[in-house]
Write a structure and sequence with these properties.
32% of the residues lie in helices and 21% in strands. It has 140 residues and is an alpha+beta fold. Strands 1-2-4-3 form a 4-stranded mixed beta sheet. The radius of gyration is 15 Å and the shape is globular. The model has no long low-confidence stretch (mean pLDDT 91).
Length: 140
């Protein structure tokens, strides 16, 4: 997190927030409707079945994000983990949210990749041949 914060500072960005803990309820950090978007980049898949409620793409957690997002706000989720991605898509549907855009190979689609901000982790694993999956989520 420190390296990311240093990069944000160096770039002079004023619209990024780092939450240095498991952010259970974003309402503790943001007012309702304050945020434009939330990016979940390569989060821990927490592979054990009993951890599913702690995943950042669990249905109740997904719904909670929309309390702090503006009406047109979106959640963007990227991962190289196919199992987590497939599970997350089912959670989006279960949360009664809308899939605005989805790809299972982000870097193979120049149009979808044009607005992508590539993380170091993403560059490393896509360079090793991993397909990067992305879904953009909005309200129904």
């Amino acid at each position: 997190m420190l390296r990311a914060m240093e990069k944000i500072k160096k770039a002079g960005l004023k619209n990024a927030v780092f939450i240095p803990e498991l952010a259970g309820d974003l309402s503790e950090w943001f007012e309702d409707g304050e945020a434009d978007g939330i990016y979940l980049n390569f989060s821990d898949p927490l592979p054990k079945n009993y951890w599913y409620k702690r995943r950042l793409t669990y249905r109740d957690r997904l719904k909670s994000y929309f309390r702090v997002l503006k009406q047109e706000g979106t959640v963007t989720f990227k991962t190289d983990n196919t199992d987590l991605f497939n599970w997350s898509v089912l959670e989006i549907v279960a949360a009664n949210l809308k899939i605005l855009d989805i790809t299972r190979d982000l870097h193979a689609d120049p149009e979808k990749n044009a607005s992508n901000i590539e993380t170091e982790y993403e560059a490393k694993y896509s360079g090793l041949g991993e397909k990067i999956k992305r879904v953009v989520i909005g309200r129904i």
